[in-house]
Amino acid sequence: MNEVINTINKRVSLRRYKDKMIEKEHLDLIINSAIKAPTAGNMMMYSIIKITNKNTKELLSKTCDNQPFIKNAQVILLFLADMRKWFDYFKICDIEGIKTPGINDFMLGVNDAIIACQNAVLTAESLGIGSCYIGDIMENYEKHKEILDLPSYTFPACMITLGYYPDNFKKIYRDRFEKEYVVFEEKYQRLNEDDLNKMYKYKEEKMIKNNQKNAKNFGELIYKNKISSEFSIEMDRSIKEWIKDFTG
Questions:
Q1: Is the whole model's pTM more than 0.85, yes or no?
Q2: How far apart are CA 187 and CA 83, in angstroms?
Q3: pLDDT digit string, tens, across residues 116-142
Q4: CA torsion, ordered 139, 141, 143, 144, to nearest 10 deg
Q5: Which of 36, 59, 141, 161 falls 20 to 30 Å from 135 in CA-CA distance?
Q6: Could you say which DSSP state residue 64 is in?
Q7: Could you tell me the CA-to-CA distances from 135 to 23, 73, 83, 88, 90 in Å, in that order?
Q8: Is 112 exposed, middle or buried (0-12, 13-18, 19+ CB in 10 A)?
Q9: Percent helix, strand and coil across the chain, each rounded to 5?
């Protein structure tokens, strides 16, 4: 197995970090690799905010669904979908009848940001630096806009925490769904009841093993804990606020 594939397969979400600042050389490699990522039309419709300030990390650990480990990360990288720079540049180019950024720009910017972020994640992993994606950065529109001074035509597409793996850290790998339920040939294949029950069977068994009694099955557990939860409702509200910039 080559080193790239090995890095992809050995990576886990890391929420506990060694008390060691990330070396500048390593952080430069991570950011430079992110910038080398594929990007729509070579426009690089994203920006990266590097966060090391203790107070800011403390704030984000609270605003991102109260996850204390966030403040312990050595570095946080926030990847923004960003059309602000392009729109400002178009204005100084004296373009007549300039069109404000639209939902297509929003989606392309999100794509650019996430692709760049994954480059950063894999580069970090290859250097012995763990990471964790924080989707909750999309919540709390008003607070995050203020904390990070985010202008219109930007959107916090994804955020990662970074830190070296602790000594003697034992990785726990999560099972993924079987390929037959994820990869379809030529056209989308809607799964029938039997397929769905087979797909989620091991999740159901794990739920029973862990004695999670607040739901009658795995579907209800996920629906209660994720889809209809308070954080999910707040994320939905906030994303709608972020998108308003791009929809006029």
A1: yes
A2: 33
A3: 999 999 999 999 999 999 999 999 999
A4: 80
A5: 36
A6: T
A7: 26, 16, 20, 28, 31
A8: buried
A9: 50, 10, 35
